[in-house]
Design goal:
The complex is a heterodimer of chains A (320) and B (302).
Chain A lengths: L1 H10 L3 H33 L3 H6 L3 H4 L13 E4 L3 H17 L5 H9 L6 H9 L9 H19 L9 E4 L5 H6 L30 H8 L13 E6 L6 H16 L5 E6 L1 H9 L8 E3 L4 E3 L5 H15 L1
Parallel strand pairs in A: 1-2, 3-4
Antiparallel strand pairs in A: 5-6
Helix pairs in contact in A: 2-8, 5-8, 12-13
Chain B lengths: L1 E11 L7 E6 L20 E4 L10 H5 L5 E4 L3 E4 L10 H4 L6 E4 L1 E4 H8 L3 H7 L2 E5 L7 H13 L3 E6 L5 H8 L4 E5 L5 H8 L4 H12 L4 E7 L7 H13 L5 E5 L5 H6 L14 H13 L4 E3 L2
Parallel strand pairs in B: 2-8, 8-9, 9-10, 10-11, 11-12, 12-13
Antiparallel strand pairs in B: 1-2, 1-7, 3-6, 4-5
Helix pairs in contact in B: 3-5, 5-6
The chains are: A mainly alpha (320), B alpha/beta (302).
Amino acid sequence: MELIRRLITKDFRSFSELKDAFEKQIENGVRLLVQALHAVELAHKERWPEPLESILVDGCLESGREVNHGGALYNFTGIQGVGMATTADSLMAIKRLVFDERAIGMEALLKALKNDFNGQEMLQQRLLNEPPKFGNDIDEVDHLACEIVGHYCNEVHWYRNLRGGPFLPGTFSVSSHDALGEYVGATPDGRKAKAPLSDAHSPVQGQAKSGPTAVLKSMVKQDHALVANGTLLNMRFNVHTLTGKERLRNFAKLIKTYLSLGGFHIQFNIVDIRVLKEAQKHPERYPELMVRVAAYVAPWNQLSKELQDEILSRTEFEAS
Amino acid sequence: MEGLIFDIQRSRQDDGPGIRTTVFLKGCPLRCVWCSNPESQRSSPEIMYNANLHIDGCEECIKACPVSTIEKDEEEGVRIGRELCRKGCNECAKVCYSNALTTVGQMVSVRELLKEVEKDMPFYKSSDGGVTISGGEPLAQPEFTREILKACKERGIHTVLDTSGYGRWGDLEEIVKYVDLTLYDIKHMNPLKHKAYTGASNELILENVRRMGQKKMPIVIRFAIIPEINDSEENINEVIGLTEEVLALRVDLLPYHRLGVSKYRMLGREYGLQSLEPPTREHLNRVRDLLISHKVGTELVV
């Protein structure tokens, strides 16, 4: 941390210098994690044999060795990179506003982050709304995301585990992006301290504003084969978006096209009316909720109260 | 070749078959009282203000306005003096970081538009989708509309035109050469009522659709059901008659909704149908059944 702080405040003359330093931090983070995993794997090997599991894993019976001793056919260990889009959007915001446009000084930005944007709401809004965001099919930020993921993956691929297998990088976060967010201060993409990080390989919550096809296009700029432990994209849809034969067919084509373009894994949330009612009471809990409005899909929280009420009544009406 | 648009939306699925990108042209000669996209009507850029997004104490736009026509307002945060506003100068929206103020309407070239439209090519191909030109009224910018559609066809993209038909036949005839399917809006069959509710008579509209029918062009009739205004049995029977006459593929029914009401406020305008309620499900079914009883294909678009 001290290194980052010193470098950020004093020494960066260009964005590429900053990015180099950031990549060094990734290298460092991966190295520390590998060391920790070595310790865990050693402890498992010495203290926690798993004979039953070993019976069920291909190769252990044939080799006559327990799974923690490298008896399996495949001995990889998965490492997950969490908060990819938060990172990409943050670096993009710094690049655009601090270096390209010189609109904000680095010290002012750091101060605002340290204060969690308190009294700096305008700056926060600017960071949230002005720079390009991952998930909108904008090459500059999408390619930055690819570079970050690429660097992280290549780092992970360097190492071997104690069972002689490779470490495989992944980007799915399950629910850890929530928990880990608790430990991360405010970020230059406009995210408040302790708020969840972006989930899995998905765009930052609420920042995919150009529709599902744009999200998928952003996703497939990444070489998914490099992320060998798996990528995951989460998307949330209103039930209505998928109602009817034609819409269901379009939905199927959307998924097929994603996979044919090189996408690896995609999941969906289909929202029902109870969620919408909850979301109206507690908008902060549903930053990424998308709903069908009138022949188009819009972010729930951007709709006025009246509009939300209408959608609520209409959806109820449809359910009857 | 440039034109004025107010939006491009990707992943659309009710503006024609498959997954589509819809280009919304700004400017419309009609003023339908129920219009849910009032920002589409005027043929020049304008400022929209969403007071919900105003940051307490922020006065950036007041400082930025070159003609000093924005002032503080107790309730709304700020208020725009629209008479003086140099529409489209964008100085206020540029410094409005929360996007409470936005400029709606921008000039784009056919080339720029095509670049955007081509991004979803793989999705058009797999879903038999394509590009829809909507509005506003595409016929109000006939050359621009034609050039976009022509460029799409040159690239093998399926094209849909969404129009009220209120324009010159010569323009429409040139445009539909590059159109695979036309979504043709019928507001009202009675010329006097049409004039009363949209500001213009429907003679031109009906004449154009009949000419398209004679040329056997693929048409889908779009009919917005506005309770008490155009949903009488008599009017719907006339719509059915027209549908049969022009050999339309089907009638899309679009129930009246009030989702555009807040946009009028954001544009500093009054909404004309303050108390009108959307049609009930029974009501919609009645209209649909009437169409079905005449063996007219129909879809509900909500």
